[in-house]
Specification:
The chain is an all-alpha fold. It contains 9 helices and no strands. It has 2 domains: 1-32; 36-153, Globin-like (Orthogonal Bundle), CATH 1.10.490.10. Helix 3 packs across helix 7. The structure holds protoporphyrin IX containing FE. Residues 63, 69, 72-73, 75-76, 81, 84-85, 88, 101-102, 107-108, 111, 113, 117-118, 121, 146, 149, 153 line the site of protoporphyrin IX containing FE.
């Protein structure tokens, strides 16, 4: 084989490898699972679910038996909490938001939240997920993220 042909064949092979690996990448990104943020429906859906969640949390008589929780309810605007929790969920699920609020230990330390109150919160949020037909897989993924915050929120 002449030198020119050898170089030609090599170039074709390099082209083939590049083209195939390119295809591989394209296939991979087409198959890539959308972020939890996207699967939840992005900010429009997340903000509605968070808003409903805080609407059921705030007047809850079980949670409000804890005087520190009840006192904070009056001190901190619900709208502010809705904004911060939405931004947090958006960021934690892979969305474009930037959470700028306080960390969970700082913002809950004075509330003396117990294991039973945490369980009540899980019960309430589960009912809100059901109301909005959030699929089980997405609920489980989101609750796994929320679960990582428990050690900072439950202090009693
Ligand atoms: C039993 C469970 C919970 C209760 C009773 C509770 C209650 C509260 C209350 C009363 C505040 C206002 C505190 C203050 O500034 O005085 C607060 C702040 C906040 N909570 Fe919770 N919370 C609970 C769980 C959670 C969870 C699971 C999340 C996250 C998904 C969360 C996210 C936040 C955020 C982002 C703030 C605002 C932080 C800031 O002020 O910058 N909370 N919570």
């Amino acid at each position: 084989m002449k030198f020119k042909n050898v170089v030609g064949t090599m170039l074709i092979c390099v082209f083939c490898i590049t083209a195939f690996s390119g295809l591989g990448i394209a296939e991979e990104s087409a198959d890539a699972k959308p972020s939890l943020y996207d699967r939840l429906g992005g900010l429009p859906a997340i903000s509605v679910v968070v808003s409903d969640f805080l609407d059921v949390m705030e007047p809850d008589s079980i949670l409000n038996m804890n005087p520190a929780i009840e006192k904070s309810r009056y001190a901190v605007p619900k709208e502010y909490l809705k904004y911060q929790v939405t931004a947090m969920v958006c960021q934690a699920t892979g969305g474009p938001c930037q959470y700028t609020g306080r960390n969970m230990a700082e913002s809950h330390a004075h509330l003396n939240i117990t294991e039973a109150e945490w369980d009540r919160m899980v019960e309430l949020v589960t009912s809100v997920f059901a109301k909005h037909n959030v699929p089980e897989a997405e609920v489980n993924e989101l609750m796994a993220i929320v679960g990582t915050l428990k050690k900072d929120i439950v202090t009693k």
